[in-house]
Amino acid sequence: xxxxVYTQPQSGQAWLEGYRHSxxxxxxxxxxxxxxxxxxxxxxxxxxxxxxxTAIADGEFLLNGPTPNPSYPLPPLEVGASPVLxxxxxxxxxxxxxxxxxxGLPQPPAVPAIDLGGVAANCVSTGQAxxxxxxEHLFQQGINWGEKxxxxxxxxILGECVVGGTTTALAVxxxxxxxxxxxxxxxxxxxxxxxxxxxxxxxxQAAAALDLTEPLQLAAAIGDPMQVVVAGMAIAASRRAGxxxxxxxxxxxxxxxxxxxxxxxxxxxxxxxxxxxTTRWVAEDPTADAVGLAAMIGDVPLLATQxxxxxxxxxxxxxxxxxxxxxxxxxxGCAISATLxxxxxxxxxxxxxxxxxxxxxxxxxxxxxxLGS
Length: 373
Prior knowledge:
The chain is α/β, with parallel strands linked by helices. It contains 15 helices and 8 strands.
């Protein structure tokens, strides 16, 4: 089976059966945190300057695919290829409706995106990532758009691109009371747990005077703009549609945040309509523990595509098997949904992804960094 249910097997399998052959709507929420500029914090861009544009470039590629002269080329990575190649291969191949949202970026994307009026977040270590006014606004935007899109699609894939987002995930999970240290994933082959933990501890100390028991105040102190938007979208969309939170430990943090907000504000939602979907490279990362984290959070199924790049023609894809990159831009969720929608298995997924790689290298005039590496 190319989709494996790692936690909550009965409810996870029921969710999969409920949306088999349904066409989803893909939502990708782009955000930024200055946490992503810290040296060594992320491999999603070889330098801090590259990481400033990772989300913008990924958003452009998700909508446009390979083009000869993109406004923002995929940034070079230390090793590997951008996960947007997976997402684009699926969405283009299956012609899914795709929505791009700007929750808070250093500058607007070069392609049509819905601007939610957010801002790029300060570093987690400041304890003042965003203002409460911005967070309340972004949460309401998430609620509004979740309601709207759930009227159109049987289920939504909610994905993200936030460089440094696993550190903000660790921060939010820790603030919510979970022992998440050494459990979150990263784009490095060996997770930089000590560095993440130090940053989170600095942020929690800096925010010590605030009431971090209020979930949106916690997000304002040590979160990122994507988390708040997607939490709102998930709460609202779950009332009438299915929700696939497409990502690893970042989306487990979003689920935990959504649950905390719904409880604190007495908001109606349907948690049984929500699953978290990622890649095998995240779920089975030996240097993290997404499965243990999902079990700790409790009631949300964690699913993962069993897609393999072991036989891929490109070394940049094979790097995923060595632990590089792993996930992003809803890659795992898109692969899961391709299997649900059109029964795409390993053969169909790999062929579509390699075809996108072929085209990207062709239009880039065989530039060695064409695949983002």
